[in-house]
Request: fold
Amino acid sequence: MFSRTESLKQYIRLYPVNTAIIVIQLLVMAGMTIYGSSKDNSTLIRFGAMFDLPRMEPELWRYVTSIFVHIGFEHLLFNSFAIYVFAAPLERMFGSFRYAVFYLLSGIAGNIASALLHKDYYIGAGASGAIYGVYAAYLYLSVFRKDLIDYQTKQTVRIIVIIGFIYSVVIPNVDIYAHLGGFVGGLLFTALMTLFIKRRQREQDHIDHLDHQQQ
Reply:
């Protein structure tokens, strides 16, 4: 599932949302680099990063924009790789529109958790909350929709989640609150989305059955 054998052209056609996310991240990074530096606090704030600073309140739109802002090229590369490799199959499972909503909501959930749980002043940015939401979706599906997730993928997801949270604790300056918030949000949104899809399917099956009886 996580083996990316598509050509670039095929990837863009199959995964338009993930392609757009990566392109936006690259453009934002280019803009920050031209303007100043992606590691400069004033540049980060200007380009939409989240923050909690003295006598400053973050605007609501930052809960979305900060998902596409990254602190340094390594941060961007790591998250873009995760999106390119691991998020692609989920876009196909959910459908592009539902996946886009899911991705944004998971990222917002991560930012909300980060804002609520940080005790010190901070500046936060990155797609990690949304990415951990993606991991949570796979974990949920591996338990409740085993028909969609094979054994090898399930094992891979569990390893990624465990290593990811260990990384969040061990490595300094990693926003574990955003990771936790995105993960919990991803579980919740996947559960709600699965219930919605099942309900729609039952309604459609009922309609089809009535049509068949009328014929």
Notes: DSSP finds nine helices and two strands in the chain. The first strand starts at residue 50 and ends at 52.
